[in-house]
Write a structure and sequence with these properties.
It comes from Gymnodraco acuticeps (Antarctic dragonfish). The chain is of the alpha/beta class and about 325 residues long. The chain contains 13 helices and eleven strands. It has a seven-stranded mixed beta sheet, sandwiched between helices. A two-stranded parallel ribbon has the order 6-11. A two-stranded antiparallel ribbon has the order 8-9. The protein is globular, with a radius of gyration of 20 Å.
């Protein structure tokens, strides 16, 4: 994939200056929210505690404690925020496209693995937490729910924003609620590689962390949810990252931080101002479902079997679509 100035100009051809401005502002809003909203809202609340406005954060923190388990009980998704016009501009900035390769029966539940994680998972967010990419039209009868780091739901205000978008924590309680209390027609999206995978993100890199990640397969077997692989081509191209060699001191520091805080401190840069991602097309291809039986207490052999099937299906999906999605034929998929 090309990320040069000429490529960007080509994608902006035919767009008015106003349209380009709206795309940039919408993308900056999404990126800034990802990077700063959690920290800013937390600092603001604690600051207000030492001012004459202290009743506001006090009441909020009391309410947050009372409301503590709501994210794991389905949250409170709002149609208004998911249909916000800004998401259409975010989609068009790159642009982002959602591609279906097989039908998904709305009378079943699915656990969809999204790869790669990238720096910010903008493809997964736009396709499955907003209505801008036509998920409902492509998969009628299905409800998409993106699951992310559970620790984010401890952050004041940020948790409300995430829940309004239908984003929920990736925890066993949350998965149990979605796959039992909501009936059928649920597509639960999990970024399998997580924070560890973000450390490998960079242009031309297709490295997935998942050989030892089998929890999503165990959950699929426990609830009889079919597994579906999905690959977001272009996600790793959005930012340039300083990737430290495995085993180096700086890499160990990143991994230690990830172990303590739950997310990895990536050193990355984009275009203008450093935080605006490159205008690289993102194509999220959703693969065919892998039928999974319901085994409440699955054996390790069963887990390994379906985990292997999933990795094979994901690899096949990658190689079948890599050329049409902008990669060269010699690009390989590395799974660690």
């Amino acid at each position: 994939m090309n990320s040069g100035i000429d490529s960007n100009k080509g994608m902006m051809k035919g767009k008015t200056k106003w349209k380009v401005f709206l795309e940039v502002v919408s993308t900056l809003q999404a990126v800034s929210t990802f990077l700063f909203l959690g920290v800013a809202s937390t600092l603001l609340m604690f600051y207000l505690m030492f001012t004459s406005l202290w009743p506001i954060p006090t009441l909020y923190f009391v309410w947050q404690v009372v409301d503590w388990h709501t994210p794991e009980r389905g949250g409170r998704k709002t149609t208004f925020l998911r249909n916000w016009r800004a998401w259409d501009h975010l989609r068009d900035f790159f642009p982002i496209k959602l591609v279906k390769t097989a039908e998904l029966n709305p009378d079943k539940n699915y656990i969809v693995g999204i790869h790669p994680h990238g720096i910010m998972s903008l493809g997964a967010f736009t396709c499955f937490s907003t209505e801008s990419c036509g998920f409902k039209e492509l998969f009628p009868g299905l409800r998409s729910t993106l699951l992310v780091l559970a620790g984010l739901f401890r952050l004041p205000l940020f948790r409300e924003y995430a829940m309004f978008l239908g984003i929920l924590p990736v925890s066993k309680k949350s998965l149990t609620h979605l796959l039992t209390n909501r009936g059928k027609g649920n597509a639960v999206l999990i970024l399998v590689g997580g924070a560890a995978e973000s450390l490998f993100s960079g242009p031309g890199v297709n490295t997935l962390v998942m050989r030892q990640r089998k929890g999503f397969v165990r959950v699929a077997l426990e609830f009889g949810a079919d597994l579906v692989p999905a690959y977001a081509f272009g996600e790793n191209e959005l930012f340039k990252q300083v990737v430290f060699s495995e085993g180096s001191f700086r890499r160990r520091l990143q991994e230690l931080f990830k172990k303590i805080m739950g997310f990895a401190p990536c050193l990355f840069v984009g275009e203008h101002m450093g935080i605006l991602p490159y205008r690289i097309p993102i194509t999220t291809v959703v693969g065919s479902p892998i039928s999974v039986p319901k085994h409440i207490k699955a054996t390790e052999e069963e887990v390994d079997h379906f985990h292997k099937l999933y990795m094979e299906a994901l690899s096949k999906l990658f190689h079948e679509h890599k050329v049409s999605c902008g990669l060269s034929a010699n690009h390989e998929l590395r799974i660690i």
